[in-house]
Specification:
- 19% of the residues lie in helices and 50% in strands.
- The protein is an alpha+beta fold.
- Strands 10-11-12-16-1-15 form a 6-stranded mixed β-sheet, with no helix packed on it.
- The longest helix is centred in the N-terminal third of the chain and has 30 residues.
- The protein is elongated.
Amino acid sequence: MGKKRVRRLTCAVFLALAVCTGASRQIQQMLLPKVSVAPVEKGSVTHGGDYPAAWADEAAGIVSWQVEGDAYAYFTDVSDINFCWSDAEGEGQTRVFPILERRQGPDGSWTCAADVSELAAEAGALDLTGAYVSMKKTTDYDYTVPVSALSRRGDSYVIYTIETTQGVFSDEQTAQEWPVTVLDRDGVRAAVSTGRYGEVVTYASKPLASRMRVAVTQ
């Protein structure tokens, strides 16, 4: 009887220990920073802007628009624009025209022009009230990440990846910090120089640091 009681007591102790350990791990898991991840993948970065149109030469049907120097750097090899205007019924219209002329001013801005005389000929007159020029450039890259994956470190950026290791009771996940070269970015995606990271952290419920344990959510 004594041995049976010892065995029962030992089993009860181990069971209680397992329950306590499981509960403790659940609590720890709840307290860990929650993170979401996304893959590094092929994607596009787009730069664009809308610029009010004005007559450069109304008789010849030449419209012009002005682009700040910093913005124009994205459009140096763009050859066509979307000219947007409202017709006589007030309906919005868009047509593609080639850029006719580019001229840089002393302040660094660029004045560009396009020939829209065919529109004036079709309508008899062209009202530029509310008319604008839309310029856009889209570049494809092999490796892009959501911009939310980027974290500032001084003048550069870092990203976080997740490393999974096998623990005693379950897998453990930790955040790993990596410096990253950003080639280009817009408001949605950023192009990076390598895709070796696989997946990157795009959201964290708390500020991250390298080697910090985290819980990955779907």
